[in-house]
Amino acid sequence: MRESLVQALISLLGSERVLTAIEDLIPYGFDGTATFKATPGAVVFPNTTEEVSACVRLANEAGIPVVTRGSGTGLSGGSVPTDQALVICLVQMDRILSVDPRNLTLRAQAGVITAKLDETAAEHGLFYPPDPGSLRISTIGGNVAENSGGLRGLKYGVTRNYVMGMEVVLPDGRIVSLGNACVKDVAGYSMKDLFVGSEGTLGIVTEVLLKLLPRPLARRTLLATFDRMEDAAETVSAIIAARIIPCTLEFLDRITIGCVEDYAKIGLPTDCEAILLMETDGHPAAVEDEANRMVEIARTHGAREVQIAQDEQEALKLASARRSAFSALARVRPTTILEDITVPRSALAELVTFIAATATRHGLLVGTFGHMGDGNLHPTFLTDERDEEEMQRVHLALEAIVEKTLSLGGTITGEHGVGLAKKPWLKQQLGDASFELMRTVKHALDPHNRLNPGKIFD
């Protein structure tokens, strides 16, 4: 990176907020996938939107690409820099700016940790529902950029459903304010929605205005055990068909259960093929009714046992089984590749069976878990990237799983984003015309391809 640019950044931010030493840059060259790596030219830590804008303008003048980063927990390679790019890390922009209980909104800088949003809302009797698995370390800016989901997505939706407004730095450094606190607003294009899920390729989200909800009065957590994965999948379909929309409806297969129990010692049954974590929330009477009906449906569809948490402590213990799945699986082999596919719920049983058969056919260890209530599965390959022959088998298996997903009317990513990991299949899912429309939008806003180049498409 040019010394003149480095000196300009130091003049703007101070030397303590500009990293250029190679040993300091290494941690910013990869994300949660750990399979994509590069070395940035510098990393900067702005504190305000104006500082972000100034950094973008300086990079533009030097012809240097810019990659935005939060905590680096992404699972698609979305925040992996191109070599010698300027990484703008927003973790120091970590202030909650306001909470408005009268209008049920919260305004925060992009670097606020996701869990802190709900903790702050709870102080006012309110609720921020989106809860990605990384909620205790991921930032809201990253959540918006990836349109993150989470365990509560079935009932409450994803990040997009809670973004009412935002402040964005455009590729040329201009600052725009999009959306507002109005519940209804149809003035012009919904520009804020263009930036939600854009993975940092169209602009840098520096501040967000979020919708909050009243906090649920009651919650019940259940754990159902199955001897057949297909029975667990059919139970999910039956619960939805019964017009029950649980807060959480999560799935773990046998491999994942064993890894979680070995890791967290929760007391899970390790001799079953699958478990479902089910949670309902809302008015106490409705919660009691839905919990009883889900127990009945699970038993009707082959559940060996259904356990109902007796108190909040037991409920948290059961929920931790799902939240610790990725960490538990990651301990088994040197490389963990966490995939992300979604199909219509009616196709879940077929896809779960196909994933297991594909893993067997290619001689691979694959643990599958996910948000089965909204059709979102995470087949997780436990492998070793140093073994080229095994990695080839991983590639073939993943190709087969993606092809099957698309044939069932599914999508290549339900919540992790396209980034680098899913880029090869995006055009296949969208078709030529839709794919070119996305490229047209990118070129219109970022004609010089300065922001996060190489992500989503080449």
Short recap of the structure:
The protein is α+β, with helices and mostly antiparallel strands.
What is the molecular shape?
A: globular
What is the count of β-strands? 19
- Overall SS class: alpha+beta
**Helicity, in percent?**
25-40%
Uncertain residue ranges: none
Computed over alpha carbons, the radius of gyration is 22 Å
Classified by CATH, the class of the largest domain is Alpha Beta
Domains counted in the coordinates: how many?
3
Task: Determine the N-to-C terminus distance.
Answer: 23 Å
Q: Biggest sheet, in brief?
A: 8 strands, antiparallel
The CATH topology of the largest domain turns out to be Vanillyl-alcohol Oxidase, Chain A, domain 3
User: Number of DSSP helices?
Assistant: 16
- CATH superfamily (homologous) name of the largest domain: FAD-linked oxidases, C-terminal domain
CATH architecture of the largest domain: 3-Layer(aba) Sandwich
The percentage of residues in β strands lies in 15-25%
Q: What's the pLDDT, averaged over the residues?
A: 95
